[in-house]
Amino acid sequence: MKRRLALKLLAGSTAASFTSPLPPFAAALSRHRPRSFVLSSQDHALLDDMQRRGCLYFAEQASPTTGQVLDRAAAANTDGKPDAHRFSSIAATGFGLTALCIADHRGYQPHQQVLSQVRRTLNYHATTLPHQHGFFSHFNDPDTGEPLPDSEISSIDTALLMCGVLTARAHFHRDSEIVSAATLLYERVDWPWMLNGGQTFSMGRAPKSGFLKARWDRYCELMMIYLLALGSPTHPIPSECWDAWSRPPMHYAGFDYISFTDPLFVHQYSHAWFDFRNKRDRFADYFQNSTLATQAHQAFCLSLGAPYDSDYWGISASDSQHGYTAWGGPPGFGGIDGSVVPSATAGSLPFLPAACLRVQRSLRQRFGKQAYRRYGFCDALCPASSWFNPDVLGIDLGISVLMAENLRTGFVWDTFSRNPEVAVAFRRAGFRPN
Question: 149, 329, 358, 387: which one has the fewest Cβ atoms less than 10 Å from its Cβ?
Fold first, then answer.
């Protein structure tokens, strides 16, 4: 059902008391961070160019009236005009809100332009875009907000949006309009409703058949949903829900970590916003876990032999020559055909910086004319087949931009952590400093 909420209803909400400084729990943890990887000037230049191009996507490929970001666009775009692909992704919009904060922080785009786009995006999503209990449809018409046929109300994609919403609230904390809209969006999400009577989240709700049977009940990118829900000041879930999802052990090539047969991105997405460094719950150090998963993935790719080597590896869910594919390893799955996905190593930059930077640099040097254009890398490439994906994807550009910034400065981690709900969530989940 389409709902419209006036921002004036926010009078007296917690938005008025939102402040920017790091909460005590987060501040204490920030004093115990590991020594940063030392980037060379050439590393910074490489990442800066990639980030600038990626941020441009989120400025140009967003509806000028709603702020919704297109799911994908042509890699060969040369003029910045809106792409012919006319459907937006709520997840890409969440990445986009965070990328706009990076663009403002780095001066990639004029401050007033970024500010106006963030206001427009948040206001539209707060007052006009259809939702159910605060959850949004995965794919929508970018201009009308009409959900695409059979598009589910998505728990994970709404969570990705909320991560961007809270990043914008913290970065633009002096703008009362942004703070009010962002607070409305986050505080109206009815997280217990999406539990659908259980202790783990449903993956969503179909327009005709109701809640999906599949649940977020096994380690993957799900951590953000549970932490956002644990920290909610209006609709929190019980702390026991954090313990309810399984953490399967993986053993590969001497690496022991939590995982399953999943694409590499599952070890990246929650880490784009939530800073898991120097902390752990009773189960794991999740930052170290993602580092081990990245090392295991590198070893798996190299075990495949040519064309994979130290300059050419990294496979995650992406486009392929035969359509969108959830592929990767270990163990191998998805019909790996010699392709690489640039966002696989870009999204793991904070975990394995030297090795991932080496791939990013090599891909640009060897295949830049075909694979690296207005918005950065195309989504995937298979040079042996002379195939370079004709599209870029918003979520893959997004994870690349955010994790590059976290490697360089920790800006996204630090900004997101200024939301007081983040420290509450970590505490309720049982995290403690290492």
Answer: 149
